[in-house]
Each structure stands twice: as C-alpha cells, then as structure tokens.
Amino acid sequence: MGTRLKVLRVFKDLHRTRRDVFRDDNRALTAARVKINEEFKKNKNETSDDNIKEMLKMARAVETILRESVIQAEHVDENKIVLRPRKSLLLENVPYCDAPSKKT
Questions:
Q1: 3-class secondary-structure state, position 75
Q2: DSSP-assigned letter for residue 20
Q3: What is the pLDDT of residues 62-99, one digit of tens each?
Q4: Domain ranges of the chain
Q5: Which residues of 66-104 are buried (b: 16+ CB within 10 A; e: fewer)?
Q6: Has this prediction a pTM greater than 0.85?
Q7: Phi-psi label, residue 95: left if phi above 0, alpha if psi -120 to 50, beta otherwise
Q8: In whole angstroms, what is the distance from residue 94 CA to residue 52 CA?
Q9: What is residue 17's three-state secondary structure?
Q10: Alpha-carbon distance values, 97 to 21, 37, 91, 104 (Å)
Q11: Helix, strand or coil for residue 81?
C-alpha cells in the first residue's frame, strides 16, 4: 500500500475513533477534530519516508490510546460523576476484590 493511502487510512481511523470515544460530547468532538486536522495539515508537505513512518506510528499509538484508555465522565451533581464506558472497554473487565485471598 502506498504511503499516501496509509496516511489517509490513519487519518480516517483517527476520526472514526474520535467519533466513538467522544460520542455526545460536542466540545470534545470539535477539539479532537481540530487537533487531528491541524497535525495532519502541519505535516502535509513532509517527504521523508522515515519521518512519515514515525508520524504514522505515533498516530496509530494515539488512536490505540484513545480507543483503549479514554472513558467519558459527566458531572451530574456536585459530588457525583457518571461514567459512560464503551462496551469495548468492559469486555476484559475483572472485578476488583478488596479482601485478600487466603492461601491454603
């Protein structure tokens, strides 16, 4: 696959992830869109294959972090926050046990 297609694919993947991660949060959606577009425009004239590969690697890492680590939270009261995790984050969730297990 050509470099141009790889860049376009990463660009689209970042925007898809942005839409999924920040669903129903217009402020975060807009800020993420602006930042993604700004970074890609800033580097659109890059010609070095090594630099492009490094930037693609970084963009993939950012996309992975957004997809796997970011969770939405909303203040609903002075001392209350509602978390809205995506289903993909809960698949590998293991309940925390506060009591240590006894060894026999």
A1: strand
A2: H
A3: 999 998 888 888 888 889 988 888 777 766 556 777 77
A4: 3-90
A5: bbeebeeeeeeeeeeeeeeeeeeeeeeeeeeeeeeeeee
A6: no
A7: beta
A8: 38
A9: helix
A10: 28, 43, 18, 18
A11: strand
